[in-house]
Design a protein that fits this description.
Structural class: alpha+beta
Number of helices: 5
Radius of gyration: 18 Å
Distance between the termini: 27 Å
Order of helices and strands: EEEEEHEHEEEHEHEEHE
Shape: globular
Largest sheet: 6 strands, mixed
Strand order of the largest sheet: 1-2-3-8-6-7
Length: 251
């Protein structure tokens, strides 16, 4: 527990001690200019905005080993109709994550002025025993793999079989050959792979991977980066039913 006596930033997460045997893990995500409004740059239903924005924050916390306990939505738009559809998206995402009825919800929306663009922030708070946290678990000579395909903006749609979701993440975390997992977002696969290496005191060797651009934005966590024991690729491909690409090694 000594490592977590004070607050710490790990990847995109904030870790706070709340008791001798418990820490809070806080993750968040934001979305702007994406939605159904007049000046939104990417036109999608508000329901989709709720689904993907909550998915990112949930996956960040789940990947850490913590159990989500609360979700806060801050919507920069009116409660009806945009707010209703965003809430519906969040609710369906919680069902898919297996967290419906197990997580406290609260939030706010804009009730005083009209808005021409959609903005949404999601914060997820989870709790874990320090021994359950999956930070710095990578090992020397681990393979670094990408599960899913990085996509962003108009490339992203809900039922795309090439992108990951919370069910994919849960399956991945349950496999014994998987050491550490990080959702990849706007900074891309290479950034998250380096974060995995750094947290374990190791160096990353990237490799050329046809079809996967390691520096491309992965948008709303459309893929996952994981450190796995050598030779585990075939097991991953068979278990997850998602594209799996070896993107490097840890040394």
């Amino acid at each position: 527990m000594d490592k977590w006596l004070g607050s710490a930033r790990v990847r995109d997460l904030l870790v706070l001690p709340v008791a001798r045997d418990k820490v809070a893990v806080i993750g968040c995500d934001s979305s702007g200019g994406i939605g159904p409004k007049e000046r939104d740059v990417v036109k999608v239903p508000a329901y989709i905005v709720g689904r993907f924005t909550s998915r990112v924050a949930l996956m960040e916390v789940l990947a850490s080993g913590a159990i989500p306990a609360a979700l806060v939505s801050t919507l920069c738009a009116e409660p009806d109709p945009t707010g209703i559809e965003v809430k519906r998206g969040i609710a369906d995402e919680l069902v898919e994550a297996g967290l419906a009825g197990e997580i406290a919800l609260t939030g706010s929306s804009e009730k005083n002025v009209s808005t021409e663009q959609t903005g949404l922030g999601i914060t997820v708070i989870g709790f874990a025993a320090p021994s359950d946290l999956r930070f710095g678990m990578s090992l020397r000579d681990d393979d670094v793999v990408c599960i899913g395909v990085p996509k962003v903006g108009r490339e992203v749609y809900l039922d795309d079989p090439e992108i990951v979701d919370t069910q994919t993440l849960r399956l991945l975390l349950a496999l014994p050959g998987v050491h550490e997992v990080a959702p990849a977002g706007s900074r891309g696969i290479a950034h998250e792979a380096r974060e995995l290496a750094t947290s374990a005191g190791l160096a990353l060797e990237l490799r050329e991977s046809p079809g996967v651009n390691p520096s491309k934005s992965a948008g709303p966590a459309t893929c996952l980066v994981a450190s796995v024991e050598p030779g585990f690729m075939d097991t991953l491909s068979g278990s997850l039913k998602k594209p799996v690409t070896n993107v490097g090694w840890l040394r």
